[in-house]
Design a protein that fits this description.
13 helices, mainly alpha, 2 strands, two-stranded antiparallel ribbon, about 0% strand, about 375 residues
């Protein structure tokens, strides 16, 4: 009995060392690689030029995703043992997304070609890697999904999450800090439930993102580009699927796993959904870019990039705690709470901006009369 306890203790210590190794190695690789990436980007003119839609005022390299990819790949290849998922298929899918992102950051890729690449990467994970949502666990009365619906829903979910993180990557730090919140939640859950290889995925991603954030703080020296945001989206998409899939059979089972996952991902998913609906109601294509994202609204209110990103990150953290606190109220009820709270939060900046604009317009039409200063009577000092 004593020997068994000792073996368990040694195994946990080994896993903890692997977690630390994955975090530190990814952090060091990114911190070391990015200065070289920046230098080469300027030499080869591989940078983003500001325009009316951009929130930066000078040219900035966009190949930060290259360093994030390198840090994540090296650290995970050194530490993952493939106990609960097929790491090789994740590598294959990430390679496809990496080359699509790099091409788009350098030469610009047609949206349809980017979508086809995303679908291919998702299909590899679903068809070959077995990454699937197999049940809705009673949400709207749906339990086990047929193989066809399971595959279609999973591919759709992966593509939506990838594009969600891509679309919120509009200001310094935002995509990185939101990703850290999301992957930390999943990482802690995987650790507690004994899915250590998936926990290592989280620690590697967090290390890579922290290294990137050092160079992305205002004034940003580099952006992650589509390479970084799409890679982050795919990694977190895979974590989301495994969280939903493994939750019922785990020792820390969470009711309404799909709805909890939606709540954890509320910033990229709800903001994307809100913006797409807004564009459609205006008769525009949902894919037509604008400045209607929540971070754009905060910038209009005078927030700096760092303050806006921190504000949204804190909202995401509080939202995760709220979702966890209400995890047992039922799937439909929890989804209703999530949509209500997210709707209120996302509408506040717009309401404040409209109020200010109306006030300014009234002042222009009906300027306030100048108040006459009254002279004081008395002895001058």
């Amino acid at each position: 009995m004593t020997g068994r306890i000792k073996n368990v203790s040694l195994q946990k210590n080994k896993i903890m060392i692997e977690l630390l190794l994955s975090f530190i190695s990814s952090l060091v690789i990114v911190l070391t690689a990015i200065p070289s990436v920046i230098r080469v980007s300027y030499l080869k003119h591989l940078y983003d030029v500001p325009d009316e839609r951009k929130s930066h005022e000078k040219v900035v390299p966009t190949l930060g995703g290259l360093a994030i990819f390198a840090g994540f790949m090296v650290s995970t290849s050194l530490t993952i043992n493939e106990q609960h998922f097929n790491y090789n298929y994740l590598v294959g899918a990430l390679m496809i997304i990496f080359f699509i992102g790099i091409k788009d950051d350098i030469l610009i890729t047609a949206p349809i070609k980017k979508l086809m690449g995303q679908l291919l990467a998702a299909a590899i994970l679903v068809v070959l890697g077995g990454v699937r949502i197999t049940s809705m666990y009673g949400f709207l009365g749906v339990e086990t999904l047929s193989p066809e619906i399971s595959a279609s829903l999973t591919i759709f979910t992966l593509v939506v999450i990838m594009n969600g993180f891509n679309l919120i990557d509009g200001i310094n730090w935002l995509s990185a800090v939101v990703s850290i919140v999301v992957t930390t939640f999943f990482g802690v859950w995987f650790w507690v439930t004994g899915h250590y290889d998936l926990a290592i995925v989280s620690s590697s991603l967090v290390g890579s993102l922290l290294g990137f954030m050092w160079f992305n703080k205002t004034p940003a020296k580099i952006f992650m580009g589509d390479t970084g945001s799409l890679i982050i989206g795919l990694i977190i998409g895979v974590q989301t699927i495994y969280f939903i899939k493994l939750s019922p059979a785990s020792n820390w089972s969470l009711n309404s796993a799909p709805i909890i996952a939606f709540g954890v991902l509320i910033v990229p998913l709800f903001d994307t959904l809100r913006v797409f609906i807004s564009r459609a109601l205006k008769g525009k294509s949902p894919l037509n870019p604008d400045k209607n994202h929540i971070h754009h609204k905060l910038l209009e209110l005078g927030f700096s990039h760092m303050k806006a990103s921190t504000f949204i990150m804190l909202f995401n953290v509080l939202f995760v705690f709220m979702v966890y606190a209400f995890r047992n109220i039922g799937s439909l009820e929890l989804l209703s709470v999530e949509i209500l709270v997210a709707s209120v939060f996302s509408s506040i900046p717009s309401l404040i901006t409209r109020s200010k604009n109306r006030k300014n317009a009234l002042q222009v039409v009906h300027p306030e009369p100048l108040k006459k200063s009254k002279k004081r009577k008395g002895v001058a000092s």
